[in-house]
Design brief:
Blueprint (H helix, E strand, L loop, with lengths): L15 E7 L5 E8 L11 E9 L26 E8 L12 E9 L1 E6 L4 E5 L3 E5 L3 E4 L6 E9 L3 E2 L5 E2 L9
């Protein structure tokens, strides 16, 4: 299925992003004020993402030009970086099982989502709930008839090492063509 980015088919309103900047004389100004159109890497029945900001390294520079947040790929943070994004799930939509090499702070802005772990654990998170996802193999499922929006900050992390010394790698299934 081809990826799509179209405002007429948006699941939820495009997030407004206001970014500050600092002029060379030290004065603070509004650097940009835009709506960030979502990207649908798995088609309209899956998930949509709006990435607001990313940096390849921490600490970040507040004086370099603002990176263009528009992307045509599912969000992934750099190994030593940080990424700020939303993930929107259509009614009865889901993600594939995956693992990112990151510490993720996830806030449920709207709706509810079920986090399913490869070990069999499940948790339902509702509007206002927070998930601290620490490199777990997981998937997201929206079992409701309502849209769900997650606000996510991903911070690069070390690989998890199992008791037998195996390092757990990042895992994302290939997108269907």
């Amino acid at each position: 299925m081809a990826s799509t980015s179209v405002s007429t088919a948006r699941l939820l309103p495009a997030p407004r992003v206001i970014t500050t900047s600092t002029k060379s004389d030290g004065t603070s100004v509004i650097g940009s004020d835009t709506h960030n159109e979502p990207f649908f890497p798995f088609g309209f029945s899956g998930s949509a993402f709006s990435t607001f900001h990313s940096s390849d390294a921490v600490p970040v520079s507040n004086t370099t030009p603002i990176p263009d947040p528009k992307t045509t790929k599912a969000p992934r943070n750099a190994p030593n970086g940080v990424l700020f994004t939303t993930a929107d799930f259509a009614p009865h939509g889901s993600s594939p099982m995956h693992r990112s090499l990151s510490l993720d702070y996830v806030y449920v802005c709207q709706g509810e989502i079920t986090m399913v772990l490869d070990g069999g654990g499940e948790a339902i998170a509702r509007k206002g709930d927070v998930i601290v996802q620490r490199g777990a193999m997981h998937m997201w499922k929206n079992h409701t008839n309502e849209y769900c929006r997650l606000l996510v900050v991903m911070i690069g992390s070390e690989k998890i090492q199992t008791a037998d010394g195996k390092l757990l790698e990042e895992f994302f299934p290939k997108r269907p063509v």
